[in-house]
Amino acid sequence: MFRFLNIHLLCLVLLGAYTLLKLWLVADVELGKDEAVYWYWSQHLDASYALLPLAVFKLAHALLPHQEWFLRLPSVLLGAFSIALVYWLCRMQGLAERLALWAATAFALSHWIWHTSSYLHPDGFLIPCWLLALCMARQAEATNALRPYVYAGLAAGLAVLCKYSGAFLVGGLGLWIALDQRGKERWHRLAAFLLPSVAVAAPLSYAQFSTDFYLPQTLSTLSRIDDLGHPLARLLFFASSPLFFISPFLLFLLYAGLVRATKQRDLLALLPALCTIGAFLFFALGRGQIKGNWLLPGLLSLWPVAFAAHPRRWLLVAVVATGMLQALVIGLGLKYPDLYSDLAARSGLDKSYVGLVSQEDRVREPSYSWSERLCEYSGWRRFAADVEEVIPSLPLLSTQYSIPFALAYYGRVEREYYTVDDPRFRDLTDFYGQRKAPYPEEVLFAVRAGGKVPESLSATYPRRKLIAGIDRRRAGCPSVSYQVFHLGR
């Protein structure tokens, strides 16, 4: 009894230390470009993409404005909750306490979980909602009662509100109920699961139907890899793409868990994983869209199965050690980018980044090396101050979304911000979508040095004049130069 209490007390202390360490690592790190988008979107809230996370970001900013650590605090706390849910899920599936602790530790120290539960990201909210749905589904399987199916449906609906790709996960659970039950019970349980999930996800469903699923269609070029044209190359890269987010030892365990779940016909573990893998495999083979963290939420149902095979101790140690190394290297790199930027530049690793980014993404997100990606969380506050010293308070436009969204957060001068030629933001900041004629007589256009004023904007504003060249800098980071043009009609 005392040993049980001591172990759990130690786990709580370690979980608290883990949470405090993550808060310290993100405390003075500026918002990255995607974080700035999520913040701006939260201030102009709609249900078309990630309603639940954006609503929480909006509340956090309202309570304590312009405090990055507080904006990220809900994600950090939900990360700790997710670790507890993984442990609970493993115990529900019969894993011994020690193995469940190994599984939860491997989860906590993977770079994927560390990052998504440290910074602003919809996955930081999707993961705990989905894990809660899996726990409720396991409870429903064990008790055969109707109420856990309702709870599973509510949690699954919240997962969809976190990110519309959560629908693939919900589809997997629905298939499990349909195939695992018999007779009238099948339909009763399917209704008990689907009705709450559909009701909770109704705001997102309404938003998507009212816009003819515009936003998912506009993401058709996101994370495309131009250098992979052959289907076999795409398949191999798809299978290995999670290695950007988890260690190779952990990925091996998860794929072994997939095989084991198939042999055991564990449909609850298998079907959500297969639905997710199948959906994103279609995008990978058909469009070349590959990103490992899209795949990983679907593999969460395999987590207990992966560790239930009693892996050897050296493998468990390797999973935890490599995951911790990967998470700490990147976590420290974002806080202290000067630690690695010189090394990356000298090693030639920087040059590999461009091959992983499509031409469309290079125009919208002009980062050309891993060092620049690492430094995307740096220099924006000073850059915003430099911008406001030299340019007038006219509307500011850009084809590169990091500029208007970061300036909207860090700028102190009241101005309008717009994106140009980026259909993802049609209903948020698109200049021609949000600003109707007559257009302003004068606007500003900001772009990374070497960028061009797009033809769509030149037709409206034929007069242009370069009025400023401003660098975004931080010690240890490569300086990034931007140009600001004054456009007139």
Q: How would you summarize this macromolecular structure in one to three sentences?
A:
With 489 residues, the chain is an alpha/beta fold.
Name the descriptors.
globular, 489 residues, alpha/beta, five-stranded mixed sheet, 25 helices
Give the number of domains.
2
N-to-C order of helices and strands: HHHHHHHHHHHHHHHHHHHHHHEHEHEHEE
Cα-atom radius of gyration? 24 Å
* Average pLDDT number: 89
Beta-sheet strand percentage? 5-15%
Instruction: State the distance separating the first and last CA atoms.
Output: 79 Å
| Strands, count | 5
SSE blueprint:
Layout: H1 2-26, H2 33-43, H3 51-63, H4 68-92, H5 97-108, H6 111-116, H7 123-143, H8 147-162, H9 166-180, H10 183-200, H11 202-210, H12 214-218, H13 231-240, H14 248-264, H15 267-287, H16 292-299, H17 303-308, H18 313-335, H19 341-347, H20 359-364, H21 370-374, H22 380-390, E1 396-398, H23 402-410, E2 417-419, H24 431-434, E3 442-448, H25 455-460, E4 463-472, E5 480-488
Parallel strand pairs: 1-2, 1-3
Antiparallel strand pairs: 3-5, 4-5
Account of the 3D structure:
The protein is of the alpha/beta class. It folds into two domains: 2-330, no CATH class; 374-488. 63% of the residues lie in helices and 7% in strands. The protein is built from 25 helices and five strands. It has a five-stranded mixed beta sheet, covered by helices on one side. A hairpin with a 7-residue loop joins strand 4 (463-472) and strand 5 (480-488). Helix 3 crosses helix 4.
